[in-house]
Design goal:
mainly beta, 4-stranded antiparallel sheet, 7-stranded mixed sheet, single chain, about 120 residues
């Protein structure tokens, strides 16, 4: 089992920045990759960024060049640095981990971009 706890969400003005953190605990040695997803009101959950154990990354087209996913293996933590935030980035952001058997989810953290 893997437990994920997100933090770092909040209210930010358009053009601003936020950094989300996801602390993993439990059977973390089994994790193949981690990811950030988001879900806006009335929309389906969508992948934002992924990072493998070897630190290869992948991004949704809508966030390329603005968001950066990274991981600190010593702290068992994954980060999502979000720059140039826009109102359409408003959503609940979820941390995700996959260990070849199942996917695990955090509780989510709200990000609101508004003036």
């Amino acid at each position: 089992q893997v437990q994920l706890v997100e933090s770092g969400g909040g209210l930010v003005q358009p053009g601003g920045s936020l950094r989300l953190s996801c602390a993993a605990s439990g059977s973390i040695f089994r994790i193949a990759y981690m990811a950030w997803y988001r879900q806006a009101p009335g929309k389906e959950r969508e992948m934002v960024a992924t990072i493998t154990s070897g630190k290869s990354t992948n991004y949704a087209d809508s966030v390329k060049g603005r968001f950066t996913i990274s991981r600190d293996n010593a702290k068992n933590t994954v980060y999502l640095q979000m720059n140039s935030l826009q109102p359409e980035d408003t959503a609940v952001y979820y941390c995700n981990a996959y260990d070849y058997v199942q996917a695990y989810w955090g509780q989510g953290t709200q990000v609101t971009v508004s003036s």
